[in-house]
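Weekly sync, protein design subgroup
Attendees: M.S., D.O., the rotation student, P.L. (late)

Item 1: inverse folding check
M.S. brought a backbone from last month's batch and wanted to see whether the design step gives back something sensible before we order anything. D.O. pointed out we never logged the input encoding, so this time it goes straight into the notes. C-alpha cells as presented (257 positions):
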C-alpha cells in the first residue's frame, strides 16, 4: 500500500512537472506578427498541376505534383509559364515534397514509405530510399533535410534519412497542425498550413510560429481541393513564388516587413 501511495505521489509530481514544462514552453511563444505582401508578377501556367512541392533554382521553378496516376516532377519556365514534365511516377506512388540540395534532388511520396533521389545530372531512374513516415513537405537547411507530415511535427534528417531530431511547431500555446509544403529561408522555416490560406514562419530552434501570412487574395478558385501549396524562394530578388493545387497561376510576391 505504501508503495502504491509513493508511486501515486511520484506520478502526480511527474504530471505536474510535464504541465509546468508544457506551459513554460507555450508561454515562450509570442503572438506571431502578421505579414503583408505585394505581388510582383503573375505567371500563367501552360497546364495546372496538383502542386505538392515547389523549388526555385537559377531562374527555373521545379514542381512535384500529387495524385495516384498523375504524379510527376515538372520544370516550369518562369518567363513563359511553360510546364514540362521531367519524370512521371508509377501510378502506385502519390508525389509529395520536392527539394534540391546541392547535386541531390529528392522527392517524397505520401503513404508509400518511399523517397526518390537523383544525384548529379541524372534525370533517369532515381535511387529508391525507404522513408518511414508519411511524406508531406520537404526542404533543407544545408545541414539536414527538413520534413513535415501534416501534423505539428517537423523532422530533421541526415543525408541518409536518419532522424536527428524533431520539433513541434506551436502557435499561441497550441500545436500548429497541418504543416504542409516547406521552404527554409534565412534561418526560418516557411510552411503552408493544410486546408487554409495561411503560410506560417517557424523558428527551427524553438518551434514557435513567429510570423504568419494570409494569402487568401491569391486563391482564385472556388474549389475546396485547390488550396495553396507551394513556396519557393529566390534569394537574388528576395521574393517568393507561391503556387497551389490545381492553380493556373503562380504568384511571385515580396514580403512587406
Ligand atoms: Ca518549397
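Designed sequence read out in the meeting:
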Amino acid at each position: 500500500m505504501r508503495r502504491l501511495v509513493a508511486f501515486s505521489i511520484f506520478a502526480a509530481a511527474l504530471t505536474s512537472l510535464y504541465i509546468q514544462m508544457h506551459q513554460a514552453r507555450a508561454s515562450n511563444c509570442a503572438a506571431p506578427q502578421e505579414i503583408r505582401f505585394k505581388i510582383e508578377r503573375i505567371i500563367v501556367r501552360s497546364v495546372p498541376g496538383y502542386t505538392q512541392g515547389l523549388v526555385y533554382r537559377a531562374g527555373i521553378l521545379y514542381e512535384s505534383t500529387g495524385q495516384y496516376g498523375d504524379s510527376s516532377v515538372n520544370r516550369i519556365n518562369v518567363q513563359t509559364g511553360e510546364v514540362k514534365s521531367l519524370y512521371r511516377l508509377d501510378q502506385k506512388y502519390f508525389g509529395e515534397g520536392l527539394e534540391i540540395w546541392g547535386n541531390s534532388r529528392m522527392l517524397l511520396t505520401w503513404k508509400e514509405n518511399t523517397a526518390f533521389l537523383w544525384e548529379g545530372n541524372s534525370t533517369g531512374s532515381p535511387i529508391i530510399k525507404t522513408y518511414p513516415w508519411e511524406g508531406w513537405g520537404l526542404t533543407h537547411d544545408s545541414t539536414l533535410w527538413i520534413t513535415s507530415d501534416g501534423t505539428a511535427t517537423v523532422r530533421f534528417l541526415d543525408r541518409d534519412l536518419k532522424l536527428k531530431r524533431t520539433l513541434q511547431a506551436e502557435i499561441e500555446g497550441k500545436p500548429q497542425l497541418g504543416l504542409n509544403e516547406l521552404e527554409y529561408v534565412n534561418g526560418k522555416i516557411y510552411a503552408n498550413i493544410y486546408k487554409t490560406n495561411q503560410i506560417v514562419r517557424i523558428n527551427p530552434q524553438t518551434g514557435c510560429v513567429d510570423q504568419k501570412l494570409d494569402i487568401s487574395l491569391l486563391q482564385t478558385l472556388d474549389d475546396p481541393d485547390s488550396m495553396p501549396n507551394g513556396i519557393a524562394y529566390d534569394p537574388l530578388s528576395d521574393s517568393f513564388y507561391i503556387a497551389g493545387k490545381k492553380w493556373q497561376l503562380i504568384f511571385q510576391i515580396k514580403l512587406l516587413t
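Discussion: The helical segments are 2-27. The chain is about 10% helix and 50% strand.
Action: P.L. to compare against the previous round before Friday.
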